[in-house]
Hints:
4 domains; Immunoglobulin-like; alpha+beta
Amino acid sequence: MKSTLLLLITSLCSVSLYAQPIVNEADVLRGSLNENRDWFDIKRYMIDVTPNYEAKSIIGVVSWKALAVKPSKQIQIDLQAPMVIDSILLWPNVNESMNTIRLEFTRSNNIALAQIEKQIPKGKQFGLTIFYHGVPKEAIRPPWDGGWIWKKDSNGQPWMSVACQGLGASVWYPCKDHQSDEPEEGAQLTIQVPKDKNLIAIGNGRKVTESNLINLSNNNRFSWQVTNPINNYNIIPYIGDYVGWKENYKGLKGNLDVSYWVLRSDSAKAVEQFKQVPKMLEAFEYWFGPYPFYEDGFQMVQSPHLGMEHQSAIAYGNKYMNGYLGRDLSGSGWGLKWDFIIVHESGHEWFANNITTKDIADMWVHEGFTNYSETLFTEYFYGKQAGNEYNYGIRRNIKNDIPIIGAYGVNQEGSGDMYSKGANLIHTIRHAINNDSLFRSILIELNTQFYHQTVTTEQVENYISLRAGFGFQKVFDQYLRTTQIPVFSYSYNEKEKEKILTYQYKNCVTGFNLPLHFNYLDKKYSFMPMDYQSQQRLIQDANFNLQDFVKTIESQYYIRLEEVK
């Protein structure tokens, strides 16, 4: 096994000039579906965790329900050091909880390998129960570094949560820590907190039980569950001095239960700021279709960090200000009209939570579409020009350092440009389609076609091309797989009654074929420049204005315009 891993690591490090990840055996074990992970499919997680605020430690029990898709006698369990696995029990028959077998296991590189004496046959459902404890990695700058969060609110009350996207859910509970395997039957999270602190524990979805345990008399127990598939990093506890309220949103699939949980000291500010939530739902159901998790409801939960897209329990920490902590990331002014975290993190319910990429190398599907949801929200309430200005403004955040798509199989993301550049790619394709009704239907159908699924970027790319009726493959290659910004090189000659526009694409991949459309007054102009092939267009329209053409193309397409004198 180690020789295979070494060969994979060596080959990954020599892929190309840009794709040179520094990886180790732990990266490959986490990022790949090896023979100890590909033989089973997770159906449901049952997590029971008890945090100790003073010791910054947790103790827990996690049960898996799984299906064997091929026989095997060894299973990989992900749990990152310094967390400790105490014991592992196998249920050969998931419906016979009393008939369990204690498994022997070894640990290294943030995983446990457990031995199964009698292999589980294909098609058989089985269960694992893992007892564990330890001091999980603490998040110092959440959500960017990740880990368990131990803070106090303004009244000195404990305030705890977790942020683990990228770092992985295995930082705090044992799981199959790979995005491709979501538990189709959902998950249940039980949180036990000290009774004397008067703390409330919030989880994803809907509350199942809340009771005092006889054998744990110092704790209160809160259980929450989702019935829909959910990604590992989205299953999150929130623990604090919370107060809550509910409202009903009349959406596309009927009545949606909307709940809010905020710190007691911030309730007045929250009531006012969270009036934006129904507006967000209105705009996104228009653009993307029905909210994907009506069965589990929608919650906005104040968190001890900026924010995260935790499914059906969005983490909110934007300090009840519009913009991104009071700043407009676009510089256009439009970003101060709405709360960035309410809009952006909720947009992930459609792209990241409903549609999830199998490998984090393809995370542009999450972040690019969700970043573009900001443009769509702005357009929905303030008009198309406002949306164009916001989208153009966020280009200043693009670095073009490395390609957006990362290396596969090694738990590696691509460039942070997946946000703003990803959004500008989608804006570019939208204008290349030149039909807003069709574009909107593509967004809605993406969420229908890949409803509650894990996908690859190729599936998303191909579906957009198919529905648009145009092959955008070279366009995707240009923006996702290179750092080059296409250049539209042109010259303009005006003679008496003739206007001649000469143009071509430069600085682009072979076959780059992005259509350009210029809708001006009552005229529509369409251009199909090709890579490095000079073309001419005779324009017989006295009203054609070169400056307006340049300004429009520059605002609607992420390309550079270069005039040749």
